[in-house]
Amino acid sequence: MTALDTVPTLLHDDTDWWRQASVYQIYPRSFADGNGDGIGDLRGIISRVPYLQNLGIDAVWLSPFYPSALADGGYDVDDYRDVDSKIGTLEEFDEMVAALHGVGIRLIVDVVPNHSSDRHEWFVEALAASKGSNARERYIFRDGTGENGELPPADWTSIFGGPAWTRVPDGQWYLHSFASEQPDFNWKHPEVREDFLHTLRFWSDRGVDGFRIDVAHGLAKDLGEVLPSKAELSAMPKDGTHPLWDRDEVHEIYAEWRSVFNEYTPARTAVAEAWVETPERRAKYASPTGLGQAFNFDLMDADFSAAQFRDIVSDNLAQSAVTGSSTTWVFSNHDGIRHATRYGLPPRAGRPGKQGADWVLAGGPEDGIDRALGLRRARAATLFELALPGSAYLYQGEELGLHEVAEIPDDQRQDPAFWRTTADDRGHDGLGRDGCRVPLPWTRSGSSFGFGTGTAHLPQPAWFADFSVEAEDGAEGSTLELYRKALRLRTELQSAENLTWDEDLCGIDVLAFERPGGWLSITNFGADAVALPEGEMLVSSAPVETTADGHHQLPGATTAWLRRPVS
Asked: Which residue, 263, 289, 366, 489, shows the most beta carbons closer than 10 Å to its own?
């Protein structure tokens, strides 16, 4: 018996609930620790459901919680239909679903279909099987090159650095686009396709409302007898014909998935993590006959710039109009440097690598960042985001204004992106993703700032005390209270999925747009205050200024929402 069978729910059968949802990403190992072992768990999440309800979100996106050796933070999955014993049990999963549904919050879970872990029963079977066996055909095994097969099939590099092929004892090699502990599935094999349909039904039957698809652009591969070199592979266009990435055939897989999603009422949703070359390629994943929605990460790569923000919003809304989907907006997640930090650093201005990676690599020096400005801009950017039509994806801790944690000793880092890259090669890739995965601070004090009764699995800095939930709860002007107010207003004000730029207000450093019903959002990206139009002030990311003659002005790095009379 699952949570759906036993617990009343505040949810209704709204098939379009996801289109303009506010979705809160939980990285389970770092959200809340319910048993004091230093690792976040389902019991911890259950204990914080009232917090999530009070925050005002529509859904939780739960990052991987499956059995895993943590070679890649849980994205190396041993068993797709179970819960890691360090995180909880299936019974606790059902309890969590019931608790979330009981307060009107839906649940999206991560699915990792490009690769399993090397501890998955199928891969263990493949290693024990012979060359050419059905067990090996579920993955991508190849003979090596060289006189005795001692060289890999190709000189490809994995996403995490190092070779993308690993040799097994009988001499064959297997492909792993990421860590060697993450062998790639062969999606041409019917058993792989059927097993994932089983997985989607397994979690949907337990009450899961949707799925976030990891590396959605990587499943379909077409490897000929002779593999291209790394240089040749890099030069190939990603137009649907690339051997590894974003092949057109991947959408045949997702059409099958859509048939499964549509077996349920309301239909299960999905959002693709698809790194592609153009918005047109991304739109294919958002097709109503496929996954239905796809992440756009454009704002994560943008400077705090009116021109860049306007171009990104206009382009993505245009693509959404073509597909019939709704777009997505995100500033921070488990793979990127927190936007409060990015915006406190010098503009990226076209430089390579992730914004802020150099600062992290340098150990997070205080003379290299303006933390106050970064947080001020982050608050303004988030309020801008929450006014946009489409889904807003929020990452745990951003509602507290958390900065990236740079000061993590090397011997305590966990991200394979750090451990598999030499110090000389790190460069713009920085020190991996641990800095945004540090466990949340719930209280001002304690061995882990209230994360649990013991110490946290990643070290927390002393400054977390002032950014804790306890410090910000009920505090006027705190980032937590800003998020709560904005999310509540967003629910009340949300309307048709369009906006109109107010050209009279827009300028070099100002963006203003109106949503149906007279809801106006105006953002000052510059340093100098600008005049505010007439209207009822609903919320602002920083205090609005009043001139001596009584006129209201919007300070720099500030967003405000106003309600104007509808003509």
From this structure: 489
**From the candidates 263, 301, 466, 545, which is the catalytic residue?**
263
Phi, psi of 255 (to 5 degrees): -65, -40
Our answer to whether residue 407 is catalytic in this structure is: no
Question: Is the pLDDT confidence value at 427 over 70?
Answer: no
Active site residue 411: no
Assess contact for 384 and 400: CB atoms under 8 A: no
Helix (H, G, I), strand (E, B) or coil at 305: coil
Tell me which of 41, 78, 84, 214 is the catalytic residue: 214
Closest alpha carbon to 564 in 509, 513, 511, 490: 513
Whole-model pTM: value is 0.94
Termini Cα distance of the chain: 54
Pairing of strands 391-395, 141-142: unpaired
Tokens 């990285």 belong to which residue?
27
- Residue 422: enclosing H or E segment and its boundaries? none
Classified as helix, coil or strand, 107 is strand
For residue 463, give the amino acid letter.
W
Q: Is 81 helix (H, G, I), strand (E, B) or coil?
A: coil
Distance, in Å, from the CA atom of 223 to the CA atom of 21, rounded to the nearest integer, reads 39
**In this structure, which amino acid lies at residue 555?**
P
